Amino acid sequence: MSRPDHETSLERVLAHVAAGDLDPAVAAETLRGYVDLGFAHVDTDRARRVGFPEVVFGQGKAPTHIAEIARALYVRNQRVLVTRITPEVAKAVIAALPALPARYAAAAHALIIEDHPAPIRGQGTILIVAAGTSDLPVVEEAALTATVYGNRVERLTDVGVAGLHRVLAHRERLRAAHVIIVIAGMEGALPSVVAGLVSRPVIAVPTSVGYGASFGGLAALLGMLNSCGTGVTVVNIDNGFGAAYAASLINLPTDAEPPA
């Protein structure tokens, strides 16, 4: 074997070295829990610690750096997700990793590298509810993240409070979900409405959608933070990834193993 998968027990690692089936240099790296690339310290131990591997925030990073980080994760049997990446940067990263099964999800502005789809690990369905179609890029980021983390994902879009009957028509779907992510811009009222209909965790995502007085999503953020709906928690503006990560942790069985 080349390394013990998600295993950092000192005794076990040393036993592999003594048996001659693990290179001492790889053993040292395994125990250290990160790979030093010079420009980045890639956290290879995160999946064991928290249940999900490190995710690469692509915005502002050079394609060569993204490619090296992604390779470091992938060769250690970790599924790779790169968020906030433009089509041009994604194209350059994919070209730099011709042997890896990389694909670009344009709607989510994300890059995924995986040998096979993630197995379902979540207890129930994560339902992603969006107020309007302008919120769809954030919806897709959340949906892709939740799917990569092994969840059943459903979408319910264009059900904002400007036409309250639209969301009320889906009360059974709302109540059947295990976790609900609600994404809205403008005044950000939809999470309060949804929270008043269900006995499920509601994770609210304000978006930067709206006219001038929305202040790039700040109005929606403050509205959600001041929600009178109980059970509502709020992530940052346009942070579909953060909402899906939190929802995945909520949806994860307590005895779940780290992902393969």
What is shown here, in short?
The chain is of the alpha/beta class and 260 residues long. The chain has two domains: 10-113, no CATH class; 125-251, Rossmann fold (3-Layer(aba) Sandwich), CATH 3.40.50. The chain is built from eleven helices and eleven strands.
Model description:
- There is one protein chain.
- By secondary structure, the protein is of the alpha/beta class.
- The chain folds into 2 domains: 10-113, no CATH class; 125-251, Rossmann fold (3-Layer(aba) Sandwich).
- Helices cover 37% and strands 17% of the residues.
- The protein has helices at residues 10-19, 24-32, 46-50, 63-74, 87-96, 136-148, 164-168, 171-176, 190-195, 218-225, 240-251, and strands at residues 34-36, 41-43, 56-57, 80-83, 102-105, 110-113, 125-130, 152-156, 179-184, 202-206, 232-234.
- The strands form 3 sheets. The chain has a 5-stranded parallel sheet. Strands 3-4-6-5 form a 4-stranded mixed sheet, sandwiched between helices. Strands 1-2 form a two-stranded antiparallel ribbon.
- β9, α9 and β10 (202-206) form a beta-alpha-beta unit.
- α1 (10-19) packs antiparallel against α2 (24-32) and α6 packs parallel to α11.
- The longest helix is centred in the middle third of the chain and has 13 residues, at 136-148.
- The protein is globular.
- The two termini are 16 Å apart.
- Mean pLDDT is 89; it is low at 1-8.
